[in-house]
Specification:
Blueprint (H helix, E strand, L loop, with lengths): L1 E9 L2 E7 L4 E5 L6 H11 L15 E9 L2 H9 L8 E9 L4 E5 L2 E3 L1 H8 L3 E4 L12 H10 L2 H26 L2 H20 L5 H13 L1 H17 L15 H13 L6 H30 L4 H20 L7 H15 L3 H42 L10 E8 L10 E8 L7 E2 H4 L2 H17 L5 E5 L7 H14 L4 E5 L3 H4 L4 E9 L4 E7 L2 H13 L5 H19 L1
Parallel strand pairs: 3-13, 3-14, 8-12, 12-13
Antiparallel strand pairs: 1-2, 1-4, 4-5, 5-6, 6-7, 9-10, 10-11, 14-15
Helix pairs in contact: 4-13, 5-13, 6-12, 7-11, 8-10, 9-10, 13-15, 15-16, 18-19
Length: about 575
C-alpha cells in the first residue's frame, strides 16, 4: 500500500511530506483548494504523461516520490526487471524540469515512464470521477467482465490462436488465387533458377577459384623465387654482388658453423650461452622454413589446361552476377534466395492439401479456446450481476436491475473470442431491459458505475485504491451509503477517497484536509491530517458552508459518532 508521498516544487505545493495509513482515508477541501494537485503529483510518480508546466513558479524542478509497501508479486517484478530490492518497500520517483523534461526512478535506478506505469498498475488503481463515462465506450462491458473473471491469460491465448489461424488462412487464400501476376513471376523465377542450377555454383567457390587462378597465372615466377629461397636457406647459392668470386655457404650452413665456433670457447659466460641458444633456435626455424617451402613448391604446378578451365568458369560466374546486379561472391546467396521464392510459388497439390488441413486445425484450436473463454465469462457474469444488483438499493436505485448479456456467435469470430458482450439495465419494473447507455439517466449511470467499481475493486489484487469524487451526483442518505461501501472496501484494501460529501467523509478512519494559503506574492497548497476536533469542524464546514453554527458542529459530531459506532459493530 501507499505509505508516504513527498511533493516538492509542484504546482502550488512548495514542499509536502504526507504519511498515509491503511483503511479508508478521505481527502476534503474547498473547491479549488488543490485536491487535484495531490492526485496529479501522484499520477506523475506513477508514470502519467506530463500535461503542461507543472513546476512551481520560480523553481528549477519538481520532485515527487511515492513509497509503497509491496507484496511478493511486485518483488518478483522488480527482480525480473533488475531493479534493486529494499526490504518490503518500493519508491517510485519522478523529477520534472521547467522545460518539461523528466527522469524516472524505481528504487533509485533510472526508469522510463512506461516502466513506472507498468509497476504502478500492480500497486494502485485510480477510479476517476468520470469513470462512468467509460461504460459508454466500445468493448467496455467485455473488458469489465474479463477483469472480474480473471481471464487475462485465456484471453491472450485466444488472441494468439486467432492471429495464427488468420495468418495461415491468408497464406492459403493467396496461394489459391494464383493471379496472372504470380504466374508471370513464376515463369521468370523458373528461368532464372534453371540458369543458376546449370552453373552449379557452390558456397565460397568464387574466392577459391580466384585464388587458384592467381597461383596458376604466376606459377613460373613462384617456382623460380621459391627455388632461389631454398638454395639460399640450405643448398648454397651465388652471391649476387660477386658471382664470379667464391661460392657462399647457405644460411643454414653458416649458422651451423657459427655454433661450432662458439662451442669451442671455454667460458661459462651467460651471455655466450644465450647467444648459442639463439643460434640453435634459428637453425630449427630455418629447417622448418625449408620443409614448408618444399611442400609449397611441390604443390605449385604449371597447368595451362586447368588455367583455361578456371578462366572460363569465372567468366560464366561474372556474367551471371552482372545479370542479377550482384557481386560475384554474392551470386550463390542470390541463387538460394530465388530458389526459395520459386518454391513458395510452386506449391504442389499435396502441399496445398496439407496447408488446408493446417488451417482447419488452427481454426478448431481457436474455437476450443474461445469456447472455454465463453464458459468462464458466462459463469462470472451471473456472479457479477448478483453482486452489483445487491448494492442498487443502498445507492437509491430502487428496483433497478443490471444484467450482463453474452451472445455467442461462431460466425462472428474475432481475436476477443465468439462473444458479443453488453450491459443491460432495467430501471423500473415492467419496463424492458435495454443497453445501459440508452436506458440509464446521468445520475443513475454514475451510481451504477460506483457499484461496479466497488465490486470489481473487491476482486482486485491491487492493494491501494483511489476514488476521485466518484460520488458526484449523489447526496443525503445515498451519499452515506456510498461512504459505507467505501468503508467496507477499506477493510481489506487501502482506500483514498476525494469527496465533497460530508456523509462520505464521516465514514473514513483517516481524514486529510487540503487548503490553499494565499500570501502577498505567492499561493501555497497545504495538506494536513485532522484530529477528531478538526474533523468535526471540517465536516461541519462541508455541511453548513461559510457560516458554521453550533447546531452544524453538533450534527457533524453526531455523524462521526454514528460512523464510529457502526465501524465497531
Amino acid at each position: 500500500m501507499l505509505v508516504h508521498l513527498s511533493i516538492s516544487q509542484f504546482a502550488l505545493v512548495e514542499h509536502l511530506e504526507l504519511e498515509l495509513k491503511a483503511g479508508m482515508t478521505t481527502i476534503t477541501g474547498e473547491t479549488g483548494a488543490g485536491k487535484s494537485i495531490l492526485l496529479g503529483a501522484l499520477g506523475l510518480a506513477l508514470g502519467n504523461r506530463i500535461d503542461g508546466n507543472v513546476v512551481r513558479n520560480g523553481a528549477e524542478k519538481a520532485d515527487i516520490s511515492a513509497t509503497f509497501i509491496i507484496n511478493e508479486k511486485v518483488s518478483k517484478w522488480l527482480n525480473e526487471h533488475d531493479y534493486p530490492l529494499e526490504d518490503d518497500s518500493c519508491i517510485l520517483r519522478r523529477v520534472i524540469t521547467q522545460e518539461g523534461r523528466s527522469r524516472g526512478y524505481i528504487n533509485g535506478r533510472n526508469a522510463s515512464a512506461t516502466e513506472l506505469k507498468a509497476l504502478a498498475n500492480q500497486l494502485i488503481d485510480i477510479h476517476g470521477q468520470h469513470a462512468h463515462q467509460s461504460l459508454m465506450q466500445k468493448d467496455a462491458a467485455r473488458k469489465l467482465l474479463d477483469n472480474y473473471a480473471s481471464t487475462q491469460s485465456l484471453c491472450h491465448k485466444t488472441k494468439q490462436a486467432f492471429q495464427t489461424w488468420q495468418d495461415k488462412l491468408k497464406q492459403k487464400n493467396a496461394l489459391q488465387e494464383d493471379s496472372a501476376e504470380q504466374q508471370a513471376q513464376r515463369q521468370l523465377l523458373t528461368y532464372q533458377v534453371q540458369e543458376l542450377d546449370q552453373l552449379e555454383l557452390t558456397a565460397g567457390e568464387v574466392a577459391e577459384l580466384e585464388t587458384e587462378l592467381k597461383r596458376l597465372s604466376n606459377a613460373d615466377a613462384i617456382m623460380f623465387s621459391g627455388q632461389q629461397a631454398l638454395t639460399l636457406c640450405s643448398e648454397g647459392g651465388d652471391d649476387s654482388s660477386s658471382r664470379s668470386a667464391q661460392v657462399q655457404n647457405s644460411a643454414l650452413q653458416q649458422i651451423q658453423q657459427a655454433i661450432q665456433q662458439l662451442e669451442k670457447i671455454d667460458d661459462d659466460n651467460a651471455v655466450l650461452k644465450e647467444s648459442i641458444e639463439f643460434l640453435n633456435q634459428a637453425q630449427i626455424q630455418l629447417e622448418e622454413a625449408n620443409d614448408s617451402l618444399h611442400n609449397y613448391i611441390n604443390k605449385v604446378e604449371i597447368n595451362p589446361q586447368r588455367l583455361q578451365q578456371i578462366d572460363q568458369r569465372l567468366s560464366a560466374i561474372y556474367d551471371l552476377a552482372r545479370k542479377h546486379h550482384v557481386r560475384s561472391e554474392e551470386l550463390y546467396d542470390k541463387w538460394q534466395e530465388l530458389t526459395k521464392q520459386l518454391d513458395a510459388l510452386n506449391f504442389s497439390d499435396d502441399d496445398m492439401e496439407s496447408l488446408i488441413q493446417e488451417v482447419i486445425e488452427l481454426e478448431q484450436n481457436y474455437l476450443k479456446l474461445a469456447t472455454q473463454l465463453s464458459k468462464k465469462r458466462n459463469k462470472a457474469a451471473s456472479k457479477l450481476d448478483k453482486e452489483i444488483n445487491t448494492h442498487f438499493t443502498a445507492l437509491a436505485l430502487g428496483n433497478a436491475r443490471l444484467q450482463t448479456q453474452i451472445i455467442s456467435d461462431k460466425t462472428k469470430m474475432n481475436n476477443h473470442g465468439i462473444d458479443a458482450i453488453d450491459l443491460l439495465v432495467q430501471t423500473n419494473p415492467g419496463m424492458p431491459m435495454g443497453p445501459l447507455s440508452k436506458v440509464a439517466s446521468g445520475g443513475e449511470l454514475s451510481r451504477i458505475s460506483l457499484a461496479i467499481q466497488v465490486i470489481t475493486a473487491q476482486t482486485s489484487n491491487i492493494p491501494s485504491l483511489i476514488f476521485d469524487e466518484v460520488d458526484v451526483g449523489v447526496g443525503g442518505g445515498t451519499a452515506e451509503r456510498v461512504g459505507r461501501l467505501l468503508n467496507e472496501l477499506g477493510q481489506h484494501s487501502q482506500v483514498l477517497c476525494v469527496t465533497h460529501q460530508p456523509q462520505v467523509a464521516a465514514q473514513a478512519q483517516n481524514h486529510l484536509q487540503v487548503s490553499k494559503i494565499a500570501g502577498d506574492k505567492q499561493t501555497f497548497t497545504n495538506i494536513r491530517p485532522l484530529n477528531n476536533k478538526q474533523r468535526t469542524e471540517e465536516i461541519a464546514r462541508m455541511l453548513g458552508g461559510v457560516e458554521i453554527t453550533q447546531h452544524t458542529l453538533d450534527h457533524a459530531q453526531e455523524m462521526l459518532n454514528m460512523s464510529n459506532k457502526k465501524a465497531l459493530n
